[in-house]
Amino acid sequence: xxxxxxxxxxxxxxxxxxxxxxxxxxxxxxxxxxxxxxxxxxxxxxxxxxxxxxxxxxxxxxxxxxxxxxxxxxxxxx
Length: 78
Description:
The chain is mainly alpha-helical. It has helices at residues 13-25, 30-42, 51-60.
C-alpha cells in the first residue's frame, strides 16, 4: 500500500471552482486530478516516448539568442 501524505496548496478560488467542475465532468475528485497532473509531470515513465530526453536536453541547453526575437518570416528563408 502506498503511503499517502497530505499537502496544503493555495489556489485561486476561480481555479478551484473550475477544477471541481472538470473533476465532476470526469467522474473523479479534484484531488485525483491534481495528483494525476503532478504524477505525469514529475514521475519518469518507462519508454516515455522520448519526451523525458527531449525536456532534459532542453533544460541543459546553453543557448544565447543575444536578445534577438524571431519573426515568422525569418522561418521561411527562400
